[in-house]
Amino acid sequence: PSHIDMWVGQYEQAVEANKKAIISDKRYMAVTGQNNEFYKMYRMHNYHFCAWAAMFDGQFATALSYAEEAERQLDPEAVTFKLEPEGFPLGSVYLEAFGSIVWHVLVRFGRWEDIVRHPMKEDGDMYAGTVAASLYTRGVAFAA
User: Fold this and answer.
1) pLDDT, tens digit (0-9, with 9 covering 90-100), for 80-115
2) What's the pTM value of the predicted model, to 2 decimals?
3) CA distance 113 to 105
4) Whole-angstrom Cα distance, residue 38 to residue 64?
5) Is the Cβ–Cβ distance between 129 and 100 less than 8 Å?
6) How many CA atoms lie within 13 A of 21 on its CB side?
């Protein structure tokens, strides 16, 4: 229901729906041990959506919390994951992009000093989208 909530401006309801989805995902992982990268991509959508809805609703702490939680899960193994046998780079095409959420939250709320202090990823090849977002965001912060 959270997609519809966003379309009709019910941002708080969208946040709550995605919080519930994240809790359900954590329970599912605890019971099944399922944490492969394909399922991680699905779960990252819930974190991203929660942060996005929270940004629309003006909930800085919630948006940042879920963005940071997503960021912590995007380790090198996740972002370099490839589907076999063709070797489609699922991690770099889909998962890595979720690493930029924190930067978008910080710029949305005008947290210029936090942006400058926030550590940037060093591996621009592995985290290309995240590094690009961080450079853009830092540029905005320095211009503000």
Assistant:
1) 888 776 778 888 888 899 999 999 999 999 999 999
2) 0.91
3) 13
4) 24
5) yes
6) 20
